[in-house]
Amino acid sequence: MAEQAREPRVIAGYDGSESARTAVTWAAREAASRGLGLTVVQVVDWPVSDSPPPAVRLMPPAGTLLDDDTLRNQAERQVAEVTDEARQTWPGLVVGGVVEFGRAAETLVRMVGEEDLVVIGSSGRTALPRMLLGSTAAELVHTCQRPVVVVRDAKDPSDIAGQVAGRVVVGVDGSSTSERAIGFAFDFAARHGHELVAVYAWSNLPLEAMEPMGVWDQDPAEVGKEAEILLAESLAGFQERFPEVSVRREVLFDRPAHALVAQADGAALLVVGSHGRGAVRSVIVGSVSHAVIYHAPCPVAVVRGG
């Protein structure tokens, strides 16, 4: 259950890894841009559970005696270090740190308020990135009612500007979930001065696959006309609210996940809905959100429907 009403904030999961540090940097910049506070959360999974390893987990140095006090103290030192860095980089940012015991995804979901944003790294200390994406990040995407941003490792974690350079790509399918994703994408693009690329991808094959399209059994011209209409209707209200955002529309005859990942190359952010199902047959978002958090080369924001 979410906390009682309070000021919105950005919540960043942290475990001491470089991936998590990159995510905290991204979260701090976003919090400053939104005028919100930042809370860095380190979750200690102790005793070790039988579930897959969470992405926000403390691994103490070899030879350290493991007990609650030792783990908490070490986690608090790590959180203090990264929160101090955020304060120094963004002097006006209100930053807090929290250490909890439990499972990462469950703990983060419990802490999230109605207007919060959750940010987590794509890999952590304890396992391969895809294992982690299959556990904590995937669980958050499916259970957290607020937007979740999965941040990729940065080539240079200190290059803050480089982490947000490029365009914003959003998947469009005409569903209410897609509408929320579009709003998130426009807001981000407007605040950071990015071009927005709205993508409608059509396929008559299963949404989960990442392979390019093959044989068609529909008239591409007719599908393209329907898609152009859907894009225009989906974007119209947002373009009026955010006239400063340059918008490019892309209708692609490809599997949705494959099309979005290709468009996200060099992007600052890819935005998708979590369970969309739109007005035109075989549309974009739905289960695609799970595929793109594995394969996208940039941060991915997954936005839940209402």
UniProtKB/TrEMBL annotation:
<dbReference type="InterPro" id="IPR006015">
    <property type="entry name" value="Universal_stress_UspA"/>
</dbReference>
<dbReference type="Pfam" id="PF00582">
    <property type="entry name" value="Usp"/>
</dbReference>
<feature type="domain" description="UspA">
    <location>
        <begin position="9"/>
        <end position="152"/>
    </location>
</feature>
<feature type="domain" description="UspA">
    <location>
        <begin position="167"/>
        <end position="304"/>
    </location>
</feature>
<dbReference type="InterPro" id="IPR006016">
    <property type="entry name" value="UspA"/>
</dbReference>
<protein>
    <recommendedName>
        <fullName>UspA domain-containing protein</fullName>
    </recommendedName>
</protein>
<keyword id="KW-0067">ATP-binding</keyword>
<dbReference type="GO" id="GO:0005524">
    <property type="term" value="F:ATP binding"/>
</dbReference>
<comment type="similarity">
    <text>Belongs to the universal stress protein A family.</text>
</comment>
<dbReference type="InterPro" id="IPR014729">
    <property type="entry name" value="Rossmann-like_a/b/a_fold"/>
</dbReference>
<keyword id="KW-0547">Nucleotide-binding</keyword>
